[in-house]
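Deliverable D2.4 — example input (structure tokens):
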């Protein structure tokens, strides 16, 4: 692998390894034979990114396209630098954290990590193309992350309100405990606590009313926020991937999770098997000696994996072809969990072909029918 990379690199190529941090980045430059050309530390700002680019080109690269950059943390601390380098025409690869065995042998600092990132290019181990974060999918990621946190906060507030109802003064509890959720929130939001002063019984009642009103109004505010964010997510997913939204069982939330996993450049995924591995639904080989088996993949993007699981459950309930498939596999002795794993793998294949068109190639559906992708 390393020799093939060396022979494919132009004579003016420069390899750059970058160790990224919140406030600063450290870079090391190598030539195509692995000799160290220089070191650089820059601030994590637009000016710093341009300084790194000019410094890298100054080591002999004829143009930014001759730069091959290995970047650690392209989806977090290195996201800004990754966007800057891609816009300039550089080739960028994502690298994992340094090998722990090598770290024990050579120690750890930012310069060592940056050099190891650059040498991973020569070794042929840095082959993953990072997700682009400069399009509509990045907008989806920001909005969905905010919506998910609002849903979490609302659930926590609802649980807290229900717990408080158990311990508030009896007179107040008896007024509210038998109400449905919507009416309960309205009544609690309209409570007038009054002054928290003596006598003690009146003060306890006022404090309980104030606590319930605060929680109810917080829940209502979060609900309005979630509704507005869902409308935006729905509009973007309809514009970005209408063919995905049209598939059975894939709503706004599931479509958003799958699009975010694929990124703004889904063509970086070499095959549907690579997408399945990304979503954590590709079985992992776990064979040894005379034992030949596969195990469940517990890695990958867990949000995308969860979306595929929800889609499988929806189809098992409402899709006749999926239900017929489940009945056939049950008769073969498969458990429900095994059937769901098979369905998730099939759905990942279908989703990949919707996200990355395959020039009209046919795909076999779960009911045995053939449809153009």
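Example output (designed residues):
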């Amino acid at each position: 692998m390393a020799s093939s990379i060396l022979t494919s690199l132009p004579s003016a190529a420069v390899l750059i390894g970058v160790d990224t941090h919140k406030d600063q980045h450290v870079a090391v430059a190598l030539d195509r034979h692995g000799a160290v050309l220089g070191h650089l530390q820059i601030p994590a700002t637009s000016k710093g990114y341009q300084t790194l680019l000019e410094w890298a080109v100054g080591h002999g690269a004829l143009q930014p396209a001759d730069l091959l950059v290995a970047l650690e943390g392209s989806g977090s601390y290195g996201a800004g630098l990754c966007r800057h380098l891609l816009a300039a025409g550089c080739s960028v690869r994502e690298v994992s954290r340094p090998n722990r065995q090598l770290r024990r042998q050579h120690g750890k600092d930012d310069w060592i990590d940056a050099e190891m990132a650059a040498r991973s290019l020569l070794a042929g181990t840095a082959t993953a193309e990072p997700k682009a974060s400069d399009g509509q999918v990045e907008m989806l990621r920001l909005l969905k992350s905010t919506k998910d946190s609002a849903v979490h906060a609302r659930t926590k507030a609802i649980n807290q309100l229900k717990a408080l109802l158990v311990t508030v003064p009896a007179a107040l509890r008896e007024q509210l405990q038998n109400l449905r959720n919507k009416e309960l929130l309205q009544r609690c939001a309209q409570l007038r606590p009054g002054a928290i002063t003596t006598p003690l019984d009146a003060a306890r009642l006022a404090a309980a009313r104030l606590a319930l009103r605060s929680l109810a109004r917080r829940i209502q505010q979060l609900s309005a926020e979630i509704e507005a964010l869902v409308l935006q997510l729905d509009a973007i997913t309809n514009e970005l991937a209408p063919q995905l939204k049209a598939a059975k069982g894939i709503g706004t939330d599931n479509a958003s999770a799958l699009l975010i996993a694929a990124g703004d450049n889904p063509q970086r995924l070499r095959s549907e098997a690579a997408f399945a591995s990304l979503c954590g639904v590709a079985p992992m080989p776990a064979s040894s000696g005379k034992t030949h088996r596969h195990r469940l993949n517990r890695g990958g993007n867990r949000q995308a994996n969860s979306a595929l699981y929800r889609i499988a459950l929806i189809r098992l309930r409402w899709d006749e072809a999926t239900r017929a498939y489940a009945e056939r596999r049950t008769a073969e002795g498969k458990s429900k969990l095994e059937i769901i794993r098979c369905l998730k793998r099939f759905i990942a294949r279908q989703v990949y072909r919707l996200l990355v068109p395959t020039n009209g190639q046919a795909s076999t559906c779960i009911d045995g029918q053939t449809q153009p992708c």
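The chain has 15 helices and nine strands.
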